[in-house]
Amino acid sequence: MDQDRLPAAVEGEAQLEELLSRPSPADVAFARTLAGDVLVLGAGGKMGPSLARRVRRACEAAGVSRRVTAASRFSEPGLAESLRRDGIEVVPSDLLDPAALDRLPSAGDVLFLAGRKFGSAGRPDLTWAHNTVVPAHVARRFASSRIVVFSTGNVYPLVDASSTGSVETDPPGPVGEYAQSCLGRERVFEYFSREKGTPCLLFRLNYATDLRYGVLADVARKVQAGEPVDLTVPRVNAIWQGDANSYAFRALALAESPPAALNVTGAGSIAVRDAALRFARRFGREARFAGEEGPVALLSDSSRCRERLGEPEVPLERLVEWTAAWVEAGGRDLGKPTKFERSDGRF
Predict the structure, then answer these.
(1) Could you tell me the domains of the chain?
(2) Torsion sign over Cα 334, 335, 336, 342
(3) If we measure between CA atoms, which residue out of 229, 227, 220, 242 comes closest to residue 321?
(4) Per-residue pLDDT tens for 287-321?
C-alpha cells in the first residue's frame, strides 16, 4: 500500500479483507518468479484466508498462471465457498491424516500455517500432535517443495523489556508446552530439510494484528470496556497482518537447507501502558491497570526481515490508529485474545 493512500480508518469487514489481501508491488514482482503452484496448509485459521487471497491476487496482477490451493478442515461456515469464489482451489483436509496429505496436489511452494495454540494448557497432547506430528507428515509429503514454516517468537526466552528483543542467532528458550511444541515443529522441519534437502524458512511471527484480534485490539477492548489492562508483560511487538502475509509469501525466496529463521514483526515495540493511555484518550475513558510492569517481555528484533524484505507498509503508528477506530466503531471481535500478558507460557 502506498503510504499516502492508506485509509485513515478501516470501515467494515469488506474493506478490511480487501486490505489484508491486497498485494504490494513487491508481492506482484515476486509472483512473476514462481516456477510452480502454491499450496496453503492450515488455510482455515486467522491468517490463512487472506494470505491465500493475496497470493491469488498477486499472481493475477503479475499475469502468471499458478494454481493456489488452500487445505484445512474449514470449520468456519461459508469460508471454503468464499475462497472458491475468489479463484482458490479448496481441499478440505485433516492434516493429521497422512492419507489426506497424499491426496493433496503437488506444489512447488508450500506455506505451512497449521498449528495449535489456544487450549494448549487443557490438551497438551493435542497441541504436540498438531505442532510436531503434522509437520512430520507434511515434510515427508512435500520434500521437494520450498516451504515457509509458520513459527512464533515464543520459541525464544523472555528478554529484558528495555531491550530490542531476541535475534535469530539467540538460542531458543521456550516457556511452557505450547512454546516447546513450536520449537519441536521447527526441529522436525529442520530434520527433514537436512535429510532430504528440502528448502525451508522458519517464520517466527509475533504478533499479527488484523483489527478483529491482536495485542492492540486486546488492549483497546479492555480500555473501552473499563476493564483493567494487565501490565505483567510491559511491552509488545505488533505487525499489520497484511504485512505479515506479504512477508510470508516473499519469504519463499529465502528458503534454504538447512533452514534459516526469520523474526517477523513490526519495527520496534510499544509499551502496553502507553497503548492503553492512547486508547483511553481516544475513547474518552480512564485507563485502568492491573499489576506492576514486569521486567521481561516476549520481544523480537525484526531487523533481518526488514533488511531482506523491506519495511512494513503499515507502520505501528497507523496500526494503533486503525485499531482505535475499529474498536470505537464497534468492529467485530473474533473472541480470540492473544493472552500476551501471560509470562508462564500457558495458553
Answers:
(1) 3-328 (3.40.50.720)
(2) positive
(3) 220
(4) 999 999 999 999 999 999 999 999 999 999 999 99
Let me know: does 151 contact 203? Beta carbons within 8 Å. Answer: yes
Q: What is the residue whose three cell numbers read 515457509?
A: 148
* pLDDT number for residue 276: 98
**DSSP element (H, E) containing 160:** strand 159-160
In total, the chain counts a number of residues equal to: 347
Average pLDDT estimate for 190-212: 97
DSSP string, 309-342: H---SS-HHHHHHHHHHHHHTT----S----TT-
Which CA distances in Å does 137 have to 38, 95, 143?
18, 8, 10
Q: pLDDT tens, 158-188?
A: 999 999 999 999 999 999 999 999 999 999 9
The pTM (predicted TM-score) of the whole model is 0.96
Which of 229, 240, 339, 334 lies closest to 283, judged by CA? 229
Helix and strand numbers, DSSP H then E, in the chain: 13, 15
**Rounded to whole angstroms, what are the CA distances from 329 to 14, 123, 260, 285, 326?**
15, 36, 41, 15, 5
CB 207 within 8 A of CB 265: yes
Identify which of 200, 176, 205 has the alpha carbon closest to the alpha carbon of residue 187.
Answer: 200
- Three-class SS state of 182: helix
C-alpha distance from residue 345 to each of 16, 151, 203, 229 (Å) = 31, 15, 19, 18
